[in-house]
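This section describes the prediction task in plain terms. A model, or a person checking by hand, is given the sequence of a single protein chain and must write out its three-dimensional structure as a string of tokens. No templates, partner chains or ligands are provided. The sample shown here is typical of the held-out split.
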Amino acid sequence: MLLDKKMINLNKLKCIKDEHGALSIEFAMTFLGVILVLFLVYDFYVAMALQGKLDRSTYSAATAFRERTYFYRGGGGNVEAIDQAQVEQLEDLLSGLMGLNSVEIKVEALYITGSSSNPSDIGMATKEVVGFCGVSGCSSSYFSSLPDFDSLYNLAAYSQLNRWVPLYRISACVANSESLFKRAVNGLGVGDGINELCTSSVVVSRCSGNCETPTSITPPAIPLPLP
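The expected answer:
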């Protein structure tokens, strides 16, 4: 019995050492390697496609938001002021563009009021940031990792109406649920937050009227829904 086992082990060893057996093992390993590479390439392609769609959709939503004075007519209220209702409508718009039920969104506005002595001097101006999160909240660490919005004041423009034009920053995050690799990494507990894609866009306000920088933030008098 012991001799039979030794003979079987010797036959296995000969098969491994045999040229045909070695080629079979090499082919199997190469095949598995090629499959793994193709899987990773496809997974990367899916993630990049979703990231590109998020970038485009967020920029489109930001463009609509900067033009929102055509949808929010202020009957005494300042049309450049933002409120929670506007942000939630923008969240619905972005969710529709992405074709997803849940999109985390944060909208921030930077208002700059020039000093009375030298209104065009940005260094002497007063800066105020107002921000709102959508219904899905702002739980992603991406939002807190962004630079303070008031540090981007150099992007603001001083208009011919002798006022600083407000800036808006729209930030959004979505779950990359299509990525099997990222879900596997997260399942091992070594990829916290790796399964989400985020982006942000900064735009300048375009006001069609009643454009003074608000001294106190008040919502528009007659909100009209975004298309």
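For orientation: Confidence is low (pLDDT under 50) at residues 215-227.
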